[in-house]
Structure formats: structure tokens, C-alpha cells
User: Which sequence fits this backbone?
């Protein structure tokens, strides 16, 4: 029987996390690795990421309550590992499980240990603040039993190495690749797209900083000669923070709350948009940035380390201080008036090893 590799992802069901899971399993499904190893994916629902040459074990309770997640990670997976006897256990979602395996690696995709919360966050997202504080200590459990840690950016490697006293040479940088875009799709604008459209696709978490973008729209609202749309991918039903944003800014005629979009609709919005805004104050990557690069359109991004790394290779990009709505309004007005002298290409820089470009490379590195 072929040796076994376990990919644990029981908590990855939406947003960027689901995208990572799909990228991982899709690539491994079509790689030589699937010919030499049994790849077993532990997921909440296999319909969310179903590919050939992958065996699935479903854990639907993992998203219902945290007690189930803790039970799986620290009790049940230990029993499962003794039965499956994997040569590699790759946990794609932060927590280092208690398992028996020669090689263990954890993908540290969550930057909440570095979240700097405010009074506003405590008011509208108290549970998230508590979660961020809790996660910082949850990360520590079993972390030094890992053979490797995996992060998406170099700055995160530095921060994790310092915070958890982990050897930097054992932290692999695995940058998600920017997707290619067909030439026909790059500048597609629908017939009913009569005004410029700014687009900020993201789930409504406090660190996404939607209020700053909305305040910039409030500033521009008073400039009657500027017509535009600012589109968000939530509608207020998701959580208290989203509800607060919608209630506070729904009367602004330039702002639209679209709700969660499926993949095809999201792609169409990318095609129709004039400029991407990504105002987040905390990310391990910032997937919309890398998805948007292929469209070769302007981007206005937070002036933070994660955004500079993710935007490498983009052609028309500028940055703003993420809590400065006035500065953002000026950048948005530049787009509307077609003044983009402050938008520049972002060069690609080399980072030190260990670094991988694909999930197949990552698995081979872990098994080397």
C-alpha cells in the first residue's frame, strides 16, 4: 500500500481559507505526488473542494462549536494518526494537532496574534478581540513539535520566529501565485457600467477597516461632480460589525453593499471595476490583491508590509495610511480624474530560503 499524506483542513469553508484549500488539493490531485502517496483530506464538507485522486474524511461538526475543533485537534486526530500512519501530517489551519507522524507541519495563515484592537473593535466585535487574544496562546500549543511552519510572507516569518522562538530556517515561505487573466477579461466593462467602480471584496472582519473607506466616500460625496460606486461584498447580515457599517453608511448614494459573491460573480466584478481598494490593517496575504494583479488595473492599498509583498509585480499601485480617510479620498479622486502619476509598478524582490512556489514543491520540501 502506498504511504499516506494527511491534509487537515476541517475549519476551511469560506473566503481566502477555502481558496487555499482548493488550490492545495487541486494541485496535488494532478501532481505525481498523488501517484506515489495516498492523499487524505480532512474537511468539513468535501463538496466545497472535491477533486480526483484525493480521499476525503468529513468532519461537519468542526464548524459548529470550538469544543468540537479542540476535540478533533488534540484527541481524535491522535487516534486517527495511529490508524492511518501518515508519513506527513500537514495542518492547513494554524493549530498544531497532537498526532503521531515522522513529519508534521502547520500552515500559519492567521495573523490575529499581531492584531492591535481598538475601543471600536471591542464595541462591535468583542468576540473577535477575545478570539485574537485566545489565538495567540492557542498557537503555542505543540508548536515546537512541528518539523516546519509555513507562512505566506517574509515579514510573517520574522514575526513568528520572534514571537514563538522558532528557528527561521524551519519556517517556509509559500507565496500564493497570482492568477493569469485572459486579455479579453482584463478591461471588460459591462454596458450598464456607466460610472467608475471601486471594489473591495472581503468578509466583514474588524481589521478589514471598511469604516475608513466609507468615510472617504463621505468626503467625496460632497463633490457633486464626482460620480462613482464603492462596492463591498457583505450586506450587514453577517455580524455586528457588518451591521454597524451598513447602518452607518447605507444612505450614501455612492456605496453599495452587494453581499457575499460566488466565484463567477466575483470575477465579473473584477472585470467591471475601475480600481481595487484593499484597506485591511492585518493580513497574512491579501488574496484579492493577487487575484486583481492580472487585470492590470489600479490598486489603492494599505501602506503596510503585507500589501507591499502581495502587490509585487503589479503595475499601477499606490498606498495610503490605512486609518487616514482623507488620504484615501485623495487617491480615489485621482482615479476619478484620471490622475495616476502617484501609481507605480511594484518590483519583485527575492527572499531567502526556504521558499516554495507551489503546493507540490511544498510537499516535496516537507518530505525531503
Assistant:
Amino acid at each position: 500500500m502506498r504511504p499516506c499524506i494527511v491534509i487537515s483542513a476541517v475549519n476551511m469553508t469560506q473566503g481566502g481559507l477555502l481558496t487555499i484549500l482548493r488550490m492545495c488539493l487541486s494541485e496535488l490531485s494532478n501532481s505525481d505526488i498523488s501517484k506515489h502517496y495516498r492523499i487524505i483530506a480532512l474537511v468539513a464538507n468535501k463538496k466545497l473542494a472535491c477533486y480526483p485522486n484525493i480521499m476525503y474524511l468529513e468532519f461537519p461538526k468542526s464548524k459548529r462549536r470550538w469544543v468540537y475543533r479542540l476535540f478533533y485537534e488534540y484527541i481524535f486526530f491522535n487516534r486517527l494518526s495511529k490508524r492511518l500512519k501518515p508519513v506527513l501530517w500537514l495542518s492547513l489551519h494554524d493549530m498544531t494537532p497532537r498526532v503521531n507522524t515522522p513529519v508534521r507541519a502547520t500552515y500559519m495563515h492567521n495573523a490575529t496574534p499581531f492584531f492591535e484592537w481598538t475601543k471600536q473593535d471591542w464595541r462591535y466585535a468583542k468576540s473577535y478581540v477575545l478570539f485574537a487574544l485566545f489565538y495567540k496562546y492557542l498557537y503555542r500549543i505543540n508548536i515546537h513539535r512541528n518539523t516546519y511552519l509555513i507562512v505566506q510572507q517574509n515579514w510573517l516569518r520574522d514575526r513568528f520566529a520572534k514571537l514563538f522562538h522558532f528557528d527561521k530556517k524551519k519556517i517556509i515561505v509559500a507565496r500564493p501565485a497570482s492568477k493569469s487573466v485572459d486579455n479579453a477579461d482584463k478591461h471588460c466593462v459591462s454596458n450598464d457600467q456607466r460610472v467608475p467602480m471601486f471594489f473591495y471584496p472581503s468578509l466583514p472582519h474588524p481589521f478589514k477597516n471598511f469604516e475608513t473607506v466609507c468615510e472617504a466616500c463621505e468626503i467625496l460625496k460632497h463633490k457633486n461632480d464626482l460620480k462613482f460606486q464603492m462596492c463591498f461584498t457583505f450586506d450587514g447580515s453577517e455580524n455586528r460589525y457588518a451591521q454597524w457599517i451598513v447602518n452607518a453608511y447605507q444612505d450614501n448614494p455612492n456605496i453599495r453593499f452587494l453581499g457575499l459573491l460566488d466565484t463567477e460573480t466575483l470575477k465579473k466584478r473584477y472585470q467591471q471595476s475601475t480600481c481595487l481598494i484593499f484597506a485591511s490593517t492585518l493580513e497574512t496575504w491579501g488574496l484579492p490583491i493577487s487575484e486583481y494583479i492580472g487585470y492590470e488595473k489600479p490598486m489603492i492599498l494599505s501602506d503596510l508590509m503585507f500589501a507591499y509583498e502581495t502587490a509585487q509585480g503589479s503595475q499601477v499601485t499606490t498606498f495610503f495610511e490605512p486609518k487616514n480617510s482623507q488620504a484615501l479620498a485623495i487617491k480615489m479622486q485621482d482615479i476619478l480624474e484620471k490622475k495616476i502619476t502617484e501609481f507605480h509598478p511594484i518590483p519583485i524582490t527575492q527572499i531567502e530560503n526556504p521558499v516554495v512556489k507551489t503546493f507540490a514543491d511544498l510537499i516535496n520540501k516537507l518530505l525531503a
Remarks:
- The mean pLDDT is 90.
- The longest strand covers residues 4-9.
- The two ends are 20 Å apart (CA to CA).
- Residues 45 and 215 are 39 Å apart (CA to CA).
